[in-house]
Amino acid sequence: MVDEALIDLTQDRTSLRALYAPPAGKFITVDVPKLPFAILDGGGPPEQTSIGAAVKALYTAIYAIRREARERMGSSFVEPPVEIVYWAEDMRDLAAGNREKWHWRVQITLPVWADAQKLKDSTAKARHELGDEFAVRWEVLAEGKCVQFLHVGETDDLPEILAGLYGHYLAQQGLEPDGPYHEIYLDDWSRVAPRQRKIILRQPVRPTK
Question: pLDDT tens for residues 130-167?
Fold first, then answer.
């Protein structure tokens, strides 16, 4: 039975726009609902090679689900973006770019009918390509209130934006981090020039205690 509280971003364009198409260049607040995800936990510092391998593995694992979604929904199907979640014992290490102290995971939201068993079946079909190195899991996440920022361009500016978020903006709003920070990649970086790449920076928050 499908949890009626779950939002299906693969066909709900209104919710998709609210969460993934904010105005660029400024901090805004959004309420992120319960969403089902396929998740692949990373290991070690988030280097480009390890993250790239994890993203490829996650897409491989959910290929059967994506194919079924297209068959079910046709032109109504919306391909959700890749999200990479980062956290550190000291949040200041995020702003400082001390990546050797970061932890991370890769995730993609799924259609609401693609439950844990569906993901298990999809992963099993791709096991010969995945090998035993990658263990994909299903989880429902509800981030709730978040502050996010749409950045367009190269990633060199991200540490400065994060420093502004954690060093100034949250305190000014009476907020503090409440969960891992993450980035949402709205483009296929292999097809988009660095100056045109769109990344959403999102941080779950709560009122300062």
Answer: 776 778 999 999 999 999 999 999 888 888 898 899 98
Structure tokens at 54: 């994890």
pTM of the model: 0.87
| Higher pLDDT among residues 1 and 77, named by residue | 77
